[in-house]
Design brief:
Layout (H helix, E strand, L loop, with lengths): L5 E2 L21 H4 L4 E7 L2 E7 L11 E6 L8 E5 L10 E5 L9 E8 L2 E2 L3 E4 L11 E6 L10 H8 L4 E4 L35 H12 L2 H9 L1 E4 L11 E3 L4 E3 L9 H18 L5 E2 L6 H4 E2 L2 E5 L3 E5 L16 H5 L16 H13 L4 E6 L7 E2 L2 E2 L9 H13 L5 E5 L5 E6 L11 E5 L8 H6 L7 H7 L3 E5 L4 E7 L4 E8 L10 E10 L3 E4 L1
Parallel strand pairs: 2-12, 10-11, 11-12, 18-19, 19-22, 22-24
Antiparallel strand pairs: 1-5, 2-3, 3-6, 4-5, 4-7, 7-8, 7-9, 10-26, 13-14, 15-16, 17-18, 20-21, 23-24, 23-25, 26-27, 27-28, 28-29
Keywords: Hydrolase
EC number: 3.1.3.1
GO molecular function, one term: alkaline phosphatase activity
Length: about 525
């Protein structure tokens, strides 16, 4: 909701008072705001702020206050009351959309106050307005943070980075805990049970519990409080390898026990959508009364960082066709080649989102045009075998149509940001991905934060060909790393885009977990990818 701020000190609202009755112990911040604060989807004059109040501290009718200030001391805060939409119906999560309330291109501190108790302080930033050209922009890139597959030391490092925003490229949660089909628990303190007793989410309570478990991590709380975030949706926010089945007009989820039960899957998707909107601070279209997933939530959107970068945030899961070669596991959903991959009827984006992306990206006046795709955009092959049919390779005709349209328009400043593959890479983007063609831009993939990479997974199956082999088999790749966990930083200037890739040891549950710079590249139009 939008909260009207005013330049005043919020006198008479209980600020600074300890909300306790006689004989009770004072409330502590951790007892009221146990999973911290966050901000998301900044605009030139606003941002979405978020927190959650502990159910034990909640009192019906008790207002919650939000304060925003340019100084951490909050000497002259702007503030307002959040009066509605807060309680058990939102799992006690609180959202305040301040769009139109702040000044452009500035840093702010914010906090919530409930029953006289102040939340942790967060930092956020608004975007530079249209018509301005920032000298530099720094974006953190992360993805795939399976809770049981490692610790979040990388997020402690990310919290200390100098960033304008963090782009989360999907899989903020995984829909399971202790799923025996995937892997056993080997990181102390990372196991938890879902309310349903199932090993994967089967209702709204399960999805809510997953978000609470992930957000209980102190390093994730630090990173969420340190920067504004932009979130994408991938499959594990709902179910593994999900797609949209036009024959049943419902989601498909080939690994979920509800597969083959379209009405149950449709209801579950509505519940996954609801939990995402409760726990993710994003400015999207959401209708809580809708009974069809596409009408309930639409999350593709665009953010302009002045005239330097326009970022097109896409949804590559909600509208996509079924996998072209079948739903029979790795041999069909990942490692497969079939004629249906090039079928014009295969869509990754759906007709409406496709038109939105093709036309608006082509017409963007920004110095750099950014495409965020939860899944890999460039091809990944070994001879005639496709190695990532779950990515854009499974929807190659639609990808080719986009590339052709952008090539005709003379696009040369495209920056694709992707995730999902639990790897890091940089790739030439050109009309057919063949060496010697004019570049449209470059793709940079964020490594998984903790989720096991293909090297770890496929070595167990004696099927890992190696990073060097994949680079050689795909000449458009500058590099490929299927062993790495960590994060990346994208630095954008009018002249170049720089990509810094950091490995962080996920086995160390420490804020100073070992870290090293694994790769540093830059892309310049006319010169392509080069070291530095």
């Amino acid at each position: 909701m939008q909260v009207r701020l005013s330049r005043r000190k919020l006198l008479g609202l209980g600020v600074g008072l300890v909300g306790v009755s006689r004989g009770q112990a004072p409330l502590e911040p951790q007892g009221v705001f146990p999973i911290g604060v966050a901000s998301g989807d900044p605009s030139p004059d606003g941002v979405v702020l978020w927190t959650r109040v502990a159910p034990e501290a909640f009192r019906p009718g008790e207002p919650i206050v939000v304060e925003v200030c340019e100084s951490p001391e909050f000497l002259e805060p702007q503030g307002g009351l959040i009066e509605t939409g807060f309680g058990p119906e939102t799992d006690y999560t609180v959202r305040a959309d301040l769009d139109g309330q702040l000044e452009p291109g500035r840093g702010y501190f914010y906090r919530f106050i409930y029953r006289g108790v102040t939340s942790p302080i967060g930092r956020t930033r608004t975007l530079h307005p249209p018509g301005t050209m920032p000298e530099r922009l720094r974006l953190g890139l992360i993805t795939c943070q399976e809770f049981g597959s490692g610790y979040y030391g990388a997020l402690a490092h990310l919290a200390r980075e100098e960033l304008d925003a963090v782009i989360h490229l999907g899989d903020f949660i995984y829909e399971y805990s202790g799923d025996p089909r995937y892997r056993r628990e080997r990181f102390l303190g990372r196991a938890f049970r879902l309310p349903s007793g199932s090993y994967l989410a089967v209702n709204l309570a399960d999805y809510r519990a997953l978000y609470r478990a992930y957000r209980s991590d102190p390093f994730l709380q630090q990173a969420l409080a340190a920067h504004p975030w932009v979130f994408l949706w991938d499959d594990h926010e709902f179910a593994n390898d999900t797609y949209w089945d036009p024959t049943t007009h419902a989601p498909g989820a080939p690994d979920h026990p509800f597969q083959g039960q379209p009405e149950r899957l449709k209801k579950l998707r509505l519940e996954a959508n609801q939990a995402w909107t409760e726990y993710v601070p994003a400015r999207i279209v959401y209708d809580p009364m809708a009974n069809e997933p596409h009408r309930q939530m639409s999350q593709y959107r665009r953010l302009a960082f002045g005239d330097l970068l326009e970022l097109f945030v896409t949804d590559t899961r909600s509208y996509r066709s079924p996998h072209p070669c079948g739903e029979g596991g790795f041999g069909q959903r990942q490692f497969a080649t079939c004629s249906a991959q090039m079928s014009p009827s295969q869509t990754m984006l759906g007709a409406e989102q496709y038109r939105w992306l093709a036309e608006n990206l082509m017409q963007s006046p920004a110095k750099w045009r950014g495409l965020t795709s939860a899944v890999m955009f460039s091809p990944l092959r070994s001879g005639d075998l496709t190695l990532n049919t779950d990515g854009w390779d499974g929807y190659a005709a639609e990808r080719q149509a986009l590339l052709n349209a952008w090539a005709r328009a003379g696009v040369h400043n495209l920056v694709v940001l992707s995730g999902d593959l639990h790897s890091a890479l940089a790739s030439q983007v050109s009309p057919t991905f063949k060496p010697g063609e004019p570049w449209l831009g470059a793709e940079f993939m964020a490594p998984s934060l903790t989720s096991p990479g293909p090297a770890e997974t496929l070595r167990r199956l004696a099927f890992w060909p190696g990073n060097a082999f994949l680079e050689q088999a795909n000449p458009h790749l500058n590099f490929f790393d299927g062993d790495i966990n960590g994060y990346a930083v994208l630095e954008v200037t009018p002249e170049a885009v720089r990509y810094e890739l950091y490995w962080v040891d996920k086995t160390q549950n420490r804020p100073d977990a070992p870290k090293r710079l694994a790769r540093k590249l830059r892309y310049r139009p006319g010169r392509g990818l080069e070291a530095g």
